[in-house]
Amino acid sequence: MKTDVTTLAAKSAGSIELSDALFGLEPRTDLIQRMVTYQLAKRRAGTQSVNNRAMISGTRKKMYRQKGSGGARHGDKKVAQFRGGGKAFGPQPRDHAIKLPKKVRALALKHALSAKCKDGSLVVLDSTEMKSAKTKDLKTAFEKLGLSNALVIDGAEVNANFGVAAGNLKDIDVLPVQGINVYDILRRQSLVLTKAAIEQLEARFK
To answer: Read out DSSP for 123-162?
Structure first.
């Protein structure tokens, strides 16, 4: 399929042929949902921790005799019932990551790209080259393009001036093509791809 290419100055820069294998699929929400779950689970720190009974410092001596006290039977003071005791079945450091086949992850990315293309949220830029790193200039350019909430994917390296200028803009994310991922695509209203990014994506999934 063909789509128009624009410049940062909101001027036409011709058109480009998009691969149907990447941008022409019928989006499958189940695949996209699995990939988002995978990404969010993988990025969890898993460092939450509490002291269990074995980790509490203190004597293991029985508090008082088993019978005759008229109270409940207890052992040492490190049990969960007492203040300062260990927590029963509390969280321990662990990895929250789940497994997802590499082919499913690749397919989910294709469906996320196709979803943006289908709902008209895909913008193709000729390049992100800027003469200066002024945020004001980039903000004006985005206003002309009608972009207020977008993910911008550049080529192998993000243009230095563009990256600096975009750093102060709210709701604008910038990534090199290697960092493209389903979650970041979905969390922004628009997806902006440069011609260099499209070329590398098509070469990657060829």
So the answer is: EEES----SS--HHHHHHHHHHHT-SSEEEE-SSS--HHH
Are 59 and 33 part of one and the same domain? no
CA 79 → CA 28, 91, 101, distances in Å? 50, 16, 43
Mark whether 25 and 114 lie in a shared domain.
yes
Claim to verify: residue 157 and residue 65 sit in the same structural domain: no
Question: What is the tens place of the pLDDT at every residue in 137-167?
Answer: 999 999 999 999 999 999 999 999 999 999 9
Residues 197, 202, 205, 206: is their CA dihedral positive or negative? Answer: negative
List the domain range (segments joined by +) for residue 171. 2-44+101-204
Structure tokens at 50: 């509490």
108 and 200 housed in the same domain: yes
Residue-wise pLDDT for 82-126, tens only, equals 999 999 999 999 999 999 999 999 999 999 999 999 999 999 999
Domain count, the chain: 2
pTM: 0.84
